[in-house]
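Bug #77: duplicate submission created two jobs. Keeping one. Sequence:
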Amino acid sequence: MVSLGKETIHRYKEFIEWTDTLRDLDDNIWLTPIAEGKATVAEIVSHLQNWDNYLINTIIPAIKNGEGMVFPDFDSFNQKAYEFARSGVSKNSMLDEFKQTRLQLIEILLTDSNVAAKHVTANGVENCPHTGTPYSLLYIIHEFIEHDIHHKNQTLSVI
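Kept job's structure:
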């Protein structure tokens, strides 16, 4: 069983420290795909911020209303984040927005433990098929930490 608690939320917050280091990244690297057919660093940051925003604006209200979590089609959802990253938004502005959104999500998770820990369905499924752990927003945050690490490693491969 996966151990979930405040340490999970604090680990999720720690990622901000790493994204702050991207402020010094050369703009050419920021806007160049990490590999052929892959996203740019800018698109990755936008993608991560978009998911945090989705948790704040869609998932948390659903849980508060006694509903399960419903996640959209990943490809079309991610495409919107990539388009935003290509819209001309500055690197610092995007990093500021990422940080602000992540901090807002952390604050909600730390102050409303009922929302964070409540067992709910994810796209109609009660337990993670890989671990058997009951779904909760806290479990999704646990999965998103792995997701952050995956994208951090992709980014580190080009900087």
